[in-house]
Amino acid sequence: MANKVRRLAKERGYAVNMQASALRKERSGIIGMILPIYDNRFFSSITQNFERLAREMGYFPITTCTHRDPALELQAVRTMLLYQAEYIICTGSTDPDQLYDLCAKVGVPTLNIDLPGNKSVSVISDNYSGALQLTHKLIDDVQGTCRMLFIGGQPTDHNTKERIRGFRQAHIERGLPIDESQIIPCGYEAPKAKEAIKALFGNGFESYNAMFINSTISLEGVTQALSDAGNLHSPDMAVGCFDWDPLVAVLKPEITMVKQDVEKMLSELFALIRSGTHQGARIIQIPPILGH
Amino acid sequence: MANKVRRLAKERGYAVNMQASALRKERSGIIGMILPIYDNRFFSSITQNFERLAREMGYFPITTCTHRDPALELQAVRTMLLYQAEYIICTGSTDPDQLYDLCAKVGVPTLNIDLPGNKSVSVISDNYSGALQLTHKLIDDVQGTCRMLFIGGQPTDHNTKERIRGFRQAHIERGLPIDESQIIPCGYEAPKAKEAIKALFGNGFESYNAMFINSTISLEGVTQALSDAGNLHSPDMAVGCFDWDPLVAVLKPEITMVKQDVEKMLSELFALIRSGTHQGARIIQIPPILGH
DNA sequence: AGGCTATGCACAATCGATTGCGCTAAATTT
DNA sequence: AAATTTAGCGCAATCGATTGTGCATAGCCT
Fold it and tell me: Which nucleotide lies at the shortest CA–C1' distance from B19?
């Protein structure tokens, strides 16, 4: 009888009103994610995988970009909670612990991805090992003694700190000296990287023969600076980027890229949700892939 | 008194339950958008602008990617309707009219962007003029007589047809002959463009000195094919791309790109919503920008 | 002061789906 | 055949916010 009604309803195009259903069941079926921006291959790939996996679990995925702005992040999460989101995923968040507090108050679990927090589980890349490998690769690529610049990234964020640690460690392992002026975590945005490089022209830039660029966004700025200066091609410069973009990979194969394993990061995240083992702060590291 | 209660509620962290509010008000505040993929600068930029403008209007934006699959598009729109979305924006949809029908049944307006439909208002690029300009530019760039390949895109979709029309018209205006083998709308995906180019090797490819590539996704495939063949650099080949990517712009400035004016497209779309003049099928064309 | 309007506010009804109670009829047991 | 269990199903209550009705009090006018 119930099935008969269901069948007829379907035939005649009736469907449940999810607002009413959610209200009564106290389950919205919504899973929310915030992320810094969409307009970047790493984050857009995260979004795409998030949607796919959420839908496979029967959830309704909702994403919002918050431009690395702590106030916007809070605002966005608050709005998702108004819609009774059942989980909140914080991607590359500037302050995951604050978001945890907000959600914990109403009993909604948070999970971090890309940048870790101290209060809930975090799935991130193994930035240290990735940076260690990339730095070794660049040292190998250079003729003679390597002098490498590290550019881009937020000096306060965990990922950048870990990558700098890997960068340093590779230098130590190869017996290369390092001085502080080599490391310029000027922020992620392209204009900042551009300015930082321009400031080095005639001021030490010429002494470098390798660059460790902390993201494709920063790569954009660096390339603009070089292009403006006219010396777009310095074929003797070994260039590496801790990030991946398929167009860069095919157009500039000489740039070594580190591809974060987005698929594995997200399947790990959803495994935690599925198994209900997302409680308790800890960090799960996924090795990135040193690309061609 | 009412304000006193509101203030106290805010202070003590109470907030409305949007499910209940939506149920009673019969207004969810949700505006939904579907799009083919996130993982592309054009679409991710659309998403980002959509979110910004929706939020400015006080709506809660929801986006979902549907991989150019008509069944998935229907499914996604149906789900958004369950959540009582008030508007549905169809981006680059394979069958916008079918989606219109679905939404019209429950009184929800649809608006198209990127690819037009016949049943509701569509905001798209002026593909014909853009292609005309790009083709002229490439003919100018070539030494001697131009023989140009058109590659990528869906032969059935409006944008590709219009771009081919512009491509043809430019040839006519310059007195250049054209034959059908020059035009290969093999689909958007990179592997398809790659295969199409590979099939031309030793089979006519060598006679071309210009390429009109229909998207950055196809550009990826074309570049892979050239790279696999070892002749990555043919500096005498004039290359244009009807699409824009900032990394390509800085890394390969010799590639002429057409940047669709995403900001204007979306502000136009939201102007239609705001003014309530979104009824009635018509096409609004926004000129793209011929970049460096 | 009596009659009038204006204001404030409590209360019940409503949105649509879901839940569980309780009644009736059917099925099973002794 | 009577007693008991089981199944089927109608019905009222509920989720939380919002709406409009209606009553009571305050303020105003002659």
Answer: D16
